[in-house]
Amino acid sequence: MQVQCVCGHSWQWQRTEEDKRLAERYWAPLPLASLALPNVDASFLQHLVDRKADLSAVRQSDQWSAAHFAAAAPASGEMVKPPPSDASRLESLLQLKQSTGIDIEFDVADVDGDTPLSVAVAADNADAVRFLISQGSKMTPQVFASLQDWTIVQSRLEIREILRPLLQSEITLEDEVVGLPLWLEFGMVDKVSLALKNSGVEDGEAAAKAFVWGNWQSGAKGNLSAVEPALQAAMGEQVWKQHRHEAATAMLWRALESGWPDYQISGDALAVALAFGADACASNEDGMNPIRAALERQAASALELLLNAGVSPDFVFEDDCVGLMQLVFRERAREVVKALAPHVDNHYRAREMPLWLSLKMSLASRTTAALKAEPGLAAPLATELLQSELLGNNSSGTLATACKAMQARSGNDTWNAMRRNSATALLLFELRQAINFESDPDVPSLRRLLTDFGAEPNAFPESLPEDFQELTKASGHGESLTPLMLLAVNAYCSPTTSSELVELLIHQKADPDQPDEDGDTALFWALLHYNAPVAEALTKAGATITDSSIDFLQTWTHPGTLQPLATSLRPQLLRRDPTGLPSWMRVQFGIGTTPDVLHEVFEYWTEDLGEELAVALMLARFCFENSAQQSDVVRGCIGEERWPVFQRVAAQHLLVGEVSGASGGKWVLDTSFVMHLLDVGADVNTLIELDGESDEELELDNNSEDQEDAADSDG
Known about the structure:
Serine Threonine Protein Phosphatase 5, Tetratricopeptide repeat, two-stranded antiparallel ribbon, flat, mainly alpha, two-stranded antiparallel sheet
């Protein structure tokens, strides 16, 4: 394989067999790949089987079977958020097995010994775990390893209890997994004592890890304390304490990091970790310490546990105020303020508290004293004054007093300018934080920032004074973008909110064609992130599609997102000189495609010319009316002999894109579209790139071109 770096040097790199095997794990044949998608049912699978799909086959690279794919968590992403616990695809496989007799095993192991059950456990798929146990799956070393190393904290207790019955019978418990760590994890004191008596401690780290987690049982702390003296005696006091300390610290970080951003931090797990000696001050490999992690996640209960455990909050209250400035819009942020307030008050007991901090913590007595000592209106204070007013934090009347005093000290011009800068910084900050929390922005607050406080709708962070810029970058997307661009990036936002905020910003004079430093507009960012609601709203508002945007528009092949965008985009295209548009775009959107033009474009088409025009013609039915007439003209140009080849080329390309995009969570699989593509010639056993964005290449053997040609001819 020839490799070239950015400086132009190249060399020959020979991939090892292991490199190839790992790369191939990003790929799977369509029948297997479809089983990772949330809306695939028995009817769809039956259609695949009817078209000669082989559901009894396995992926050659790792021997993953249909049951492995169906047991994993369903594909999710920015636009698709299925529940992580789902047995429906396994149930569909069972239904298909019963109706057709297809050989599908639910307890088969892959090359690493992983069964569908260990895959389900690692994926936190509790419903799949229940189903697989009902089909006779066993507790294996890989299942236990998945529970210990992969299951997120929020689902660990539930899955552990589902697995517990497997420990009661030799039939469902493999010999290799039996041992001290297993009994410790499940809190089985009698078994632990017997294992210690018979075998001692063979692996101190594993025993300590299982001991700490085993003490976290449903509803309360476990009852393993009785066996700790025996563990300590078997390992030596210092060695045991060191292993337990390391295990507890690892548990603390698992509790802090699991399930971002959908799950709150598990206070119970955090409390157990702290009780067994977790280092609550140690930084992780990214330099983050626990209290900063809890603050970033805006987890009030976790902060309270850490602070009550004696963790010093000094670093939060000195030079770095960015973490606290993030506590603005969400209810969870207000809960954090309540948790922090007494600790902040105590921290500043012997010295003056900054006015912005006293306002943030709603400490009225501190605010009065701080107001007298405050020298001037700096960015943190100006922003906090506006935040407090925005959120209505004026129960004691201190806010109005502070605003009046600071306006008098700074003068009207400075006061008004600082207020506008604060509003703009908060506008950008909330749009960024919504990306970070994978959520909708707070619409009422953004509306007030724009309409009542004069936030600039076209601002980049760099357009603000330097002391405000850091506040805009406190959370979320790292690019320097305007409000419209940030909305375009946030594909997690609901369609209704996305459209509403685009309309609001446009009404407030946001420029839909404003470029960033690279010349890219909000529409470019929306197309790049497959953000259909924002792209549609922008085109309706008159956003111009640029050359760079056109490149990404060509990747929009999913009917559900392409069709509404085409409706809003086509009127703009009709006003343009068609000769300045790429041929594929003219064909797909029906721009100036007279019979003569179509004849000129397609008369000499061959398969060697690629799929671009074929794909455009097949997608035209989603982009404009009367596309069938255009297809008839093209069919006449190409001829009946070449027409099936033409359709197969397009269908094959679109099939890969549709399933791969669904696998990456960009959209929900359009099963009727897939069936249409198969009907016109796409290969039902096509290899699919599973996440749609893999950097790995599927490198076949030296005869790969022959293999690809053979696969094409089979279609």
